[in-house]
Design a protein that fits this description.
MID51-like_C; single chain; Beta Polymerase, domain 2; transmembrane; 49% helix; alpha+beta; two-stranded antiparallel ribbon; binds 2-acetamido-2-deoxy-beta-D-glucopyranose; mitochondrion; 477 residues; Poly(a)-polymerase, middle domain
């Protein structure tokens, strides 16, 4: 390992590789304590990462042997296949995680640790180091609250303007659909999403327009994803029943039937033709004094509404089925292997999980929602964390709430760190159970590479949580 720190010059010209490795090594020391196999594991992971980036040939780890001799020894697995590499990385991270400290107390910036170490060596400085630690935690606590107040929390005025724009759009669509397709069996459309629970962060920029369909009970039934050949809990098929007695066209929605199932894709296409194709948005926009345009391409149906010179709102048009047992299914496609999963409806747990989070906070005056909003903001602003969304973060906090009792405002920094750590552990396991339906894996739509990338970013953040806020701030409006 000494070679890594010793050979600065040789590394200058390889895309900051050396600096990055140095950085990671000092992080590893910091998080894990000096020495030991665990540290080696993390450092190795870091080097693999830096290599992949610097060489831009991630699938060919042997290429680098030609491009330059390194002063440090390449771990034995460097020459193996990418699959095995990945496996090894997981193993090393997992091993390292087991030796992670379990409280935030031992997580300090490098400089401080050194300072503490020096003074502690001189006198019996443990009281002093406790003080330093306390100060350190206080400052993260203060940073988080500052960040929250200044950047994360959205002013009531801004929220009101965005809600008004969403409501105007909703009203226009309602009128249009009633006039143009009076026989389409829909319940009243309504607006939903974080904008309506004060859980939106940074800018008031998105809302969901829920479009509930009326389905005839005797003609349609829902089948949970785990009972299908695709075996994906959290997704459902909606099957057309009794075709022999109620032939095709008995139900209005038969036009969206594909292979005997109600197809969310086909349904979205029907709405897309209407909403993007036949509504005169420029005209409506000029009446409302907005600029409105459909977003293309979009996996769902989305309208962009510019309601002030520099303010935009994205409204997702989201067909919804409410089944007899109350299960909510939305027409939001599965991210991966979309063709195979084309007929799957996504179960939405949003209402239930948000209600539970709020109820817990109300019971103990807790900071769960604040913690969620800070985490959401960081994930929204840091491109490396974009893949984590509100549902995953909410559930990680709900699961943490089952283990951890102290959610007072003073504990925000501790809980935030614990949330980061929990996320790394869930990523490492490749599994984040939904708190309301443990069979559902909220990471099931992440690719292996995304899991690695997220885990790596969060792992680094564990030793420098304020770095997350620093990364986020430059992306702020
Ligand atoms: C966050 O914003 C809401 C209004 O949108 C306001 O009522 C609340 O006091 C703010 N919270 C903090 C801590 O600033
Ligand atoms: C179903 O009804 C539509 C018109 O509502 C018609 O165009 C179509 O041919 C019908 N399909 C069948 C199978 O009857
Ligand atoms: C959250 O993100 C995952 C992974 O990117 C995605 O598969 C999932 O659909 C998202 N969930 C929601 C509710 O948007």
């Amino acid at each position: 390992m000494a070679g890594v720190n010793g050979d600065r010059k040789g590394k200058k010209d390889d895309n900051g590789l050396g600096t990055a490795i140095d950085f990671m090594l000092s992080n590893a020391k910091l998080v894990l304590g000096v020495g030991g196999a665990a540290m080696l594991g993390i450092a190795t992971l870091a080097m693999k990462r830096m290599y992949d980036r610097a060489m831009s040939a991630p699938t060919s780890p042997t290429k680098m042997e030609k491009t330059g001799k390194r002063s440090w020894e390449e771990p034995a697995w460097m020459g193996s296949s990418p699959r095995v590499l990945n496996h090894d990385m997981k193993f090393t991270v997992s091993r390292s995680l087991q030796s992670l400290p379990t409280s935030s107390h031992s997580i300090e910036p490098d400089g401080l640790r050194r300072a503490v170490g020096r003074s502690a060596a001189g006198r019996g400085g443990s009281a002093q180091s406790d003080l330093l630690r306390a100060r350190m935690r206080l400052s993260l606590q203060e940073r988080l609250w500052d960040f929250y107040r200044n950047w994360v929390n959205i002013s009531a005025e801004e929220q009101a303007l965005a809600r008004k724009a969403a409501l105007d759009i909703c009203a226009e669509l309602r009128v249009f659909l009633h006039a143009k397709l009076p026989d389409m069996p829909l319940r009243e459309m309504y607006l939903s999403g974080s904008l309506y629970d004060d859980l939106q962060v940074v800018t008031a920029d998105h809302a969901q327009l829920m479009v509930p369909l009326v389905l005839e009970k005797n003609l349609w039934s829902s089948i949970p994803g785990e009972d299908t050949i695709m075996n994906v809990p959290g997704f459902w098929l909606v099957r057309r029943e009794n075709l022999e007695y109620f032939p095709r066209n008995s139900s209005y929605w038969d036009r969206c039937m594909v292979g005997g199932y109600l197809s969310p894709k086909s349904l979205l296409e029907v709405f897309d033709k209407l909403v993007s194709g036949s509504i005169n948005w420029p005209a409506i926009g000029s009446v409302l004094d907005y600029i409105i345009r459909p977003v293309v391409p979009s996996e769902t149906l989305t309208l962009e509404v510019q309601y002030e010179a520099n303010r935009r709102l994205y409204v997702d048009f989201l067909p919804l089925l409410v089944m007899e047992d109350g299960t909510s299914l939305i027409a939001k496609p599965h991210r991966l292997a979309a063709e195979r999963h084309e007929n799957l409806w996504r179960q939405s747990f949003r209402v239930g999980e948000t209600a539970r989070l709020r109820a817990l906070d109300q019971e103990d005056g807790g900071c769960r929602c604040t913690c969620l909003k800070v985490a959401k903001a960081v994930c929204k602003l840091d491109p490396a964390l974009n893949r984590l969304n509100s549902s995953q973060l909410t559930n990680a906090i709900l699961l943490l709430s089952q283990k951890e009792g102290d959610w007072t405002q003073d504990a925000l920094a501790d809980r935030f760190l614990q949330l980061l750590r929990a996320l790394v552990e869930h990523l490492e396991a490749g599994r984040l159970p939904c708190a309301l339906a443990p069979k559902v894996n909220l990471f099931c739509e992440l690719t292996e590479q995304e899991v690695d990338e997220l885990g790596y970013t969060l792992y680094c953040a564990l030793s420098d949580p304020e770095g997350l806020l620093r990364t986020a701030e430059p992306h702020l409006p």
